[in-house]
Every structure is written in C-alpha cells, then in structure tokens.
Amino acid sequence: MNSFPENDIKPPKPSTIRRRDLANPSALGFGGFAATLMALSLSGMGFRGVTNQSVFIANLCFLAGIGLLISSQWEMVKGNTFGYTVLAAFGLYYGGYGVLILPSMGILESYQGRTAEYHNAFGIYQLVWCILNLFFFIASLPTGGPNIFIYGALELSYIFNCIAHFVRAEGNVATSTSLMKVAGAFGFISSLAGFYMLGHELCQEILPFRIPVYNTSRLIDSRKSSDQDS
C-alpha cells in the first residue's frame, strides 16, 4: 500500500524532443523547374538557332528530374499536398522527357525519323499533360498570383505544343514551327514566374524590398463564405 498522499504523486515529465526547423524545399523546386523550362522554351523559340535539345538532358534528368523529386518529398513532410503533387509530377515528367530525347534510347529511330506517327504520338503525349496541368492550374488559384501565372502560361504552352505536333503530322511545317514558337513564348513566361517565386522563397529575407506573392486565398475564402450565407 502506498504511504504517500495521492495529491503528491505526479506523473513523470515527458522528455522534450527539440525538432530543428526544416529547410524550405520550395526554393529548389522552383529553381529546378524554372531553369529547365526556360532552356526548353528558348530552344522552342529557336533562340540563337538552337533546336536540338539533347544538351538539356542534364537539366531534365538531374536538376529537374531528381531535384524536384527531392523537393517534393520534403513538401510531403511539411504536409503541403499541392507542392508535393506538382513537384513530384513535374520531376517525373522532366526526367521522362529527358529519356525520350536521349539518343541512346533510340525512341526517335523507332519511328524511322520524324514521321507523322511520331508527331501524332508526341501530340497525344502533350494533350494528356494539358489535362493534368489544368488540374494543377485550378488548384493554384488560391495560392497566389505568380503560381497562377506559372500553371496558366504552362497550360497555354502545352496546348500550342500539342497543336504544333498535330499540324506537323499533317505536313504543314511552317505553321507547326510558328505554333512551336508561341508555345515556347508561353513556356518562357511560366519560367519567369518560376524564377520570381524562387526569389520570394530564397532571397526575401536578404533583399531590401519585398517580393510579394499576392495571396489569392482570401478571394476563394470570401466566395465560399458568400455561398454559405446564401
């Protein structure tokens, strides 16, 4: 039988575990995404006469492919479903795109050159990403202005890229080239918005001026509130 009064019995204090603050994974995600997309977009516009994208395989498979996948895992740890989903998806997309244009894979040769079937297949590939990115664009609406620009401009880039390949499959090379340049221009705009977000995530505390993200979540919240009131 315990001889101590009941009020004197105190449970042991749980050991305090100090958790270090996690680094911000968004900076690597935005940087890898923007740098890779800008290079692809410039070649799509024919900047400096570059049309062969083989040299960008390094960015596609490593900076974007591996870098975005690493960032996505830490976004998951932070509980950011949107960040995890888009970073993982684009990391795998860019890595896969790098594999598609890798000469040793022989994918282009399997179509016996740039035939109509190849361009139709690539157009379908881009069309599916138009659909997937549309969901990303909708999900970005409450996140902020630059994010909306990223996925909105990227959606237009996918659409024009898709049409360009379908037109090329029909044999209209000149129109396809023009549409590809338009797709590259929208991709370039998307990459600029990505670099803007990189500046916000990485340099905000260093710069003497603010890099606002124009949070749009209040617009969505106010709309929900008005719908509930009605």
Automatic annotation (TrEMBL):
- Give the membrane topology: Multi-pass membrane protein
The residue stretches assigned to a coiled coil in this entry are none
Does Protease show up as a keyword for this record? no
Keyword terms, alphabetized: Membrane, Transmembrane, Transmembrane helix
Annotated membrane-spanning segments are 27-47, 53-70, 82-102, 122-141, 148-167, 179-198
Q: Annotated Gene Ontology MF terms?
A: acetate transmembrane transporter activity
User: Which InterPro entries does the UniProt record give?
Assistant: AceTr, Gpr1/Fun34/SatP-like
Q: Where in the cell is it found?
A: Membrane
Is Transmembrane helix set as a keyword in this record? Answer: yes
Chief localization class? membrane
Q: Name one GO cellular component term.
A: plasma membrane
Family the entry assigns? Belongs to the acetate uptake transporter (AceTr) (TC 2.A.96) family.
**What is this protein called in UniProt?**
Uncharacterized protein
Task: Supply the source organism for this entry.
Answer: Hypocrea virens (strain Gv29-8 / FGSC 10586) (Gliocladium virens)
